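Usage

Read records sequentially. Each one opens with the input sequence:
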Amino acid sequence: MACMWLYLACLIGLYYVFRWYRERQVVSNLGDKYVFITGCDSGFGNLLAKQLDLRGLRVLAACLTEKGAEQLKHETSGRVETVILDVTKTEDITAAAQWVKERVGNKGLWGLVNNAGVIFHYVCTEFMTKEILLNTLNVNLIGLIEVTMTMLPMVKQARGRIVNVSSILGRLAFFTVPYCCSKFGVEAFSDCLRMCIQPFGVKVCIIEPGYFKTNLVDVQKYQEALKRSWDKGPEEIKENYGQEFFEKTLTSGKHPLQKLNPNLHLVTDCMEHALTSSYPRYRYSAGWDAQFFFIPMSYLPTVLLDYIFSPKHKPAHAV
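and closes with the structure output:
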């Protein structure tokens, strides 16, 4: 029995050594390859643009604002070019695709990184509005799909990579409904697309970050959004939940946001690997919380997940 376990341990060890060696193989001629990234004003997209610039790749960075584009250009080399893009507008996407085509020419687009995203906070699911739902899906899912399908011919031309930024909330739903729906959708779209375009030599990778300190989860913005949600909520629902429930939601959500991981490189390193490794992974769990807590938790029975993630403070009229 001891020999069997030793044999199994050796096999597992050999597997991980082989995978480590295989994933260290880097694609050739990085300096000739173009990568288009959305959402480069700040956060992961901004850092990735700078990171790939240092690796010598040609970066085509899409920003939502002129201010974000100008600042990025000042902080990078001439290999980085910027364009203004709102992923919810078809005309912007079409114009950006033409702009990219003029730059990549016959080489095609080696990498497409769909990083742009938004999140809107509210007190609980019953306070969700159709406006919040549509605004979230239009950026995080519909915009991502439209950008991908518009750029896809150029990626196929280069036999390149598509890197879609999902979340651990695309594997485990316990937070805002619109955000979770959008990220579950990103997972589904990425899986379907990967199987469809594998025969053309295109690889599709999914990045699943845990909780990181970015503009999307700023503590002050979070609390302001909850207050707006409560103030605008229907009186009947507010009465059901009660003022105490709202105040405890404000407090309980504040502390975790103050302890978010500030090391964004844990995510952008995964993105960089997906773009530069000869053998990228299908999925990257970015951050210790994603790898050792949230992703393993997603395999637990639903009754346990409900107990762990449900709010511990109860509504005023709970039964």
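Summary fields computed downstream for this record:
- The chain has a mean pLDDT of 92.
- The CA atoms of residues 20 and 74 lie 36 Å apart.
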